[in-house]
Amino acid sequence: MQATDHLHEHPHDHDHHHAPDTVRAWLKTAILLALGGYFIYNIASGSLTNYINQRFAWLSYVAAVLFLALGAAGAWDLLRGRGRTACACDHDHQPITWLALAIVALPLVFGTLIPSRPLGSAAVNGDISLNAAGANLTSFNADPLQWNVLDWLRAFNNADDLTGFNGQEADVIGFVYREATFPEDTFMVARFTISCCVADASAIGLPVVWQNAGDFPQDAWVRVRGVFEVGVFRGDTVPVLHAAGVEAIQQPEHPYLYP
């Protein structure tokens, strides 16, 4: 009689033990599908370049496909009852833990709660460079008016005599960056460079002198046209861009520069 009672109780105990594993399996599946959807959303919305160098964008396509495939496979197995059947065997299975699920879900949570935007002045925190890694000048666009902030800084670093840039015209875009110690007529037209992703981002900029510098708030994207004159900025002798005009523009599609 006791043996019979034991046989009747065992399935109930097994089901009770199995329930948490099933919940975790469904959560894992949902997270995988959501991560795949999140990658697709960033690709479709153009937000991907707020996080990574555009030449690595293909990795996000691969990740989206893999997450969706894994999630779909997991859902298919659960719907067909494979997950339940597998757990009925005598093998010692190690179901995914709640901690592991939480770690996997973190990128999705942060990505959803924090609006997608490129790095700005808050990320500079006073650490903005007037230098850039050297490059062969022959790799630059032949027309200096097509150079960006990074190109100009590289040209300065390659020059033996900075006074050779006096009177040189420039046309650059970037976001407004200023510190409390800057003169009222001075700001920096700044950009971030990234090699792989925002984790290795570095802020660079050109000092700009313009009588109406206060017209544009911090982080406003602007187009600056003017000529360089060697001067002193933050204690260093550097070419300073004396603006003939500054205009507000929309944030560019690719806000970062790639060294």
Describe this structure in words.
This protein is an alpha/beta fold. The protein folds into two domains: 2-113, no CATH class; 121-257, OB fold (Dihydrolipoamide Acetyltransferase, E2P). 40% of the residues lie in helices and 21% in strands. It contains six helices and seven strands; from the N terminus they run H-H-H-H-H-E-H-E-E-E-E-E-E. It has a five-stranded mixed beta barrel. Strand 3 and strand 4 form a beta hairpin. It is elongated. The N and C termini lie far apart (79 Å).
Key attributes of the depicted protein:
OB fold (Dihydrolipoamide Acetyltransferase, E2P); single chain; 6 helices; 7 strands; 259 residues
Give the gist of this structure:
By secondary structure, this protein is an alpha/beta fold. The protein has six helices and seven strands.
Q: What's the helix and strand layout?
A:
Layout: H1 2-45, H2 57-80, H3 82-87, H4 98-113, H5 121-124, E1 128-129, H6 149-158, E2 169-177, E3 186-193, E4 202-209, E5 221-233, E6 236-248, E7 256-257
Helix pairs in contact: 1-2, 1-4
